[in-house]
Design brief:
Blueprint (H helix, E strand, L loop, with lengths): L1 E4 L7 H6 L2 E5 L5 E5 L10 E8 L2 E16 L2 E4 L3 E3 L2 E3 L5 E6 L3 E7 L2 E9 L5 E10 L5 E12 L15 E3 L2 E4 L8 E5 L4 E13 L1 H5 L5 E13 L5 E7 L7 H23 L5 H15 L2 E3 L5 E3 L2 E2 L6 H11 L6 H11 L26 H16 L3 H4 L2 H14 L6 E2 L5 E2 L13 E2 L2 E2 L6 E2 H21 L9 H13 E2 L4 E2 L2 E3 L2 E3 L8 H4 L7 H14 L1 E2 L2 E3 L16 H7 L5 E2 L3 H11 L3 H19 L11 E2 L7 E2 L3 E2 H16 L2
Antiparallel strand pairs: 1-9, 2-3, 3-4, 4-5, 5-6, 5-13, 7-8, 9-10, 10-11, 11-12, 12-19, 13-18, 14-15, 15-16, 16-19, 17-18, 20-21, 22-37, 23-24, 25-26, 27-30, 28-29, 30-31, 32-33, 33-34, 35-36
Helix pairs in contact: 3-4, 4-17, 5-6, 5-7, 5-17, 6-7, 7-10, 10-11, 13-15, 15-16, 15-17, 16-17
């Protein structure tokens, strides 16, 4: 169990607590999240952020609750707010944060001790908040002031006359529908409570993280009224907010959700027993539980993987790179197969979606590598399941189309040259994973023949040959094509002086920048290189790009290097792939290290130290129990981007499994 003690008397404790964030998810793309102090610092924070189908996307419905205990003439607050120049309340009672299967907050003040726990119900847009009163004087009242936002999670709301302030009485609570185009919300408690309608706008909540990110950062929230419950020692009050009324017993749904999570923990235990050290078993448990937060069913029922919380939806590339670590490594074989099956019919002219669309919109296909990562994900599925028949019906036809169109040529100038190498790009789109665009232009232009794309292409073609044999089908290309491609790859990208691979070949010029993309030519199941070249590439990446938290995207000695990921969006995007550290690459770095090692035992010990150090440092910063999207390229490598990123989490799980297999 994770436990963090908090003492407001320690200098800087408030600032530290506002940098620590908790996250709850519901398997539908919705979530609840805030800081350790339950003081929002992001427009994305909220207690019920629902992923709905109309209007599509995530919406902050219940932003927060100002909860307090009135004990005599003393009011003890269980949450707080940042207003212009004012942090309210200035005196706060939080003593500790704990999280095993859900976040818990322990508050103490004089005669009062209360534990607040928060859960989202799996498969439902419903938040449960339980207040267990361990100690209190007689006559103590739990006072709850809900604040609603009812907005898209990327936007902010200001006081307005369009909001419908009317509330309706419900069993032990109330309901309201602030705007006609959004669903109503139902707020109820498990025991009899009083609700006093008292509509009011609270102005100028400040979200300090948004200010740092260069966005609007002040918001007004609406309070429809006040819920009050008289409590005593041993009272357990459960409040729920949802899109539908609850007519049963809230205690039963709490117990059922708790049991579901305990069962998931038991399943995690079964997957961690192969590690001897308790440190590694604990790390894997945390990674498994963190990983399950990304597995969702969209409003249309499609299985998928959220790329990151708080602001990313599900993306094709991220889904496929994350898939093995979040499903197959955890024994969730059918879940992984279902995602691959769901993606197969989306293939269009050889391309797989970069961004998925819901509600009948067109998927975005502006990517060259997603279709190639599909081959890799299927390879991983076969590695863990051996289920060739699962490939035959849906995956294989899509894979044949991808090969056909990539050889023939398709959108975005994607096509194969006479040597078999793949080129792509039109100067306007960023088609690889280094896809940041500022002022209409790619920050990291990779038109031409990128090294990672051609490593993925060689792997896809080689795997296609393997599968065609299993399917007893003829190849749509000459048998010597792979050997020609292998030779062309080495001649095009290999830099003898330095023993590494250039990044992009375009119009007769090889970009010799040292980037992590070259590691895929060693890590993928089929490598287009000679074994002696593997060692040089691993050494180059280790010496120039490796940090304790992942691989830099550019060598610090390069004049284009940017070591800090900060500022407004143009500034952040300008450094996104120009030195910023990405943890997801560690899985491929680990694979490359093991493949090229003369002493695998020594290499395993080295990689174990790397992943243990990362977990020990990072699991209690930024998103508690989560793995961040990126880190600064420069020490001390501050976390940035999403507090919980799917492929960061999946990459560490994969790395652990590689180390198991290395024995």
């Amino acid at each position: 169990m994770m436990q963090i003690k908090w003492d407001q008397a320690v200098p800087g404790s408030r600032e530290t607590a506002l940098e620590l964030e908790w996250l709850e998810t519901n398997g539908l793309g919705g979530y609840a999240s805030s800081t350790l102090l339950n003081c929002h610092t992001r427009k994305y924070h909220g207690l019920l952020v629902a992923n709905i189908d109309s209007p599509p996307g995530r919406h902050v419905l219940l932003s927060k609750i100002e909860d307090s205990l009135q004990a005599g003439d003393q009011e003890i607050f269980l949450s707080c707010h940042q207003y212009p120049g004012v942090f309210f309340p200035s005196d706060f009672s939080l003593k500790a944060y704990e999280c095993e299967i859900y976040p818990s907050f322990i508050y103490e003040r004089a005669e009062v001790e209360v534990r607040k726990c928060i859960m989202l119900v799996s498969g439902e847009n419903r938040v449960l908040i339980r207040y267990y009163v361990k100690r209190c004087p007689s006559g103590t009242v739990l006072r709850l002031k809900p604040f609603v936002a009812f907005r898209n999670y990327h936007s902010l709301v200001r006081e307005n006359t369009a909001l419908n302030v009317e509330t309706r009485e419900e069993k032990n609570g109330f309901s309201m529908q602030p705007y006609n185009d959004l669903p109503p919300i139902f707020v109820q408690t498990n025991i009899k409570s009083s609700f006093s309608p008292s509509p009011a706008w609270y102005r100028n909540f400040e979200y300090l993280a948004e200010e740092r990110r260069g966005y609007d950062w002040r918001e007004d929230l609406f309070r429809p009224g006040i819920v009050e419950v008289t409590v005593k020692e041993g009272s357990s009050i459960i409040l729920t907010a949802a899109l539908e009324p609850f007519k049963g017993q809230l205690k039963k749904i709490w117990v059922a959700e708790e049991r579901l999570r305990l069962n998931a923990m038991t399943a995690c235990e079964a997957q961690t027993h192969r590690f001897e050290q308790e440190e590694d078993r604990n790390n894997l448990r945390r990674l498994f539980l963190a990983g399950q937060q990304f597995l969702i069913r969209t409003p249309s029922g499609r299985p998928s993987i959220i790329a990151g919380y708080h602001w990313f939806q599900d993306w094709g590339r991220d889904t496929l790179i994350s898939l093995p670590g979040l499903t197959f490594c955890q024994g969730l074989m059918q879940e992984g197969i279902d995602i691959l099956d769901a993606m197969a019919p989306m293939e269009k002219d050889g391309l797989m979606p970069n961004c998925f669309a819901e509600s009948g919109d067109e998927h975005a296909y502006n990517t060259v590598d997603t279709a190639l990562w599909y081959f890799w994900a299927v390879q991983q599925m076969l590695k863990y399941t051996g289920n060739v028949e699962a490939v035959r019906e849906k995956m294989w036809p899509a894979m044949k189309n991808i090969i056909h169109y990539y050889m023939k040529g398709t959108s975005f100038n994607i096509g194969m040259n006479e040597q078999g190498l793949l080129s792509a790009g039109d100067g306007r789109h960023a088609l690889t994973w280094m896809d940041a665009i500022v002022h209409g232009r790619p920050v990291t232009p990779r038109n031409g023949m990128p090294v990672d794309i051609n490593a993925l292409w060689y792997n896809a073609l080689s795997f296609f040959v393997e599968l065609a044999g299993r399917m007893e089908e003829d190849l749509p290309f000459p048998k010597d094509m792979l050997s020609k491609l292998r030779q062309a790859f080495q001649e095009t990208f290999w830099i003898e002086e330095g023993s590494y691979l250039g990044d992009v070949y375009f119009e007769g010029v090889l970009d010799k920048a040292i980037r992590p993309n070259q590691i895929l030519a060693v890590s993928l199941p089929y490598s287009p290189l000679e074994p002696y070249q593997w060692k040089g590439i691993v050494a180059c990446v280790r010496d120039h790009l490796l940090t304790p938290l992942g691989l830099r995207t550019l060598d610090p000695d390069n004049r284009e290097y940017r070591g800090r990921y900060e500022g407004d969006q143009p500034n952040r995007d300008s450094s996104y792939h120009q030195g910023t550290v990405w943890p997801w690459l560690l899985a491929h770095y680990g694979e490359a290290c093991l493949r090229s090692a003369e002493d695998r035992t020594q290499q395993k010990a080295y990689l174990l130290h790397l992943v243990r150090s990362l977990m020990d440092r990072h699991i209690r910063e930024a998103g508690l129990g989560c793995i961040s999207e990126v880190f600064d390229g420069n020490p001390p490598h501050r976390p940035g981007g999403c507090i919980a990123q799917a492929w960061s989490t999946a990459g560490l799980i994969q790395l652990y499994y590689l180390l198991i297999e290395a024995d």
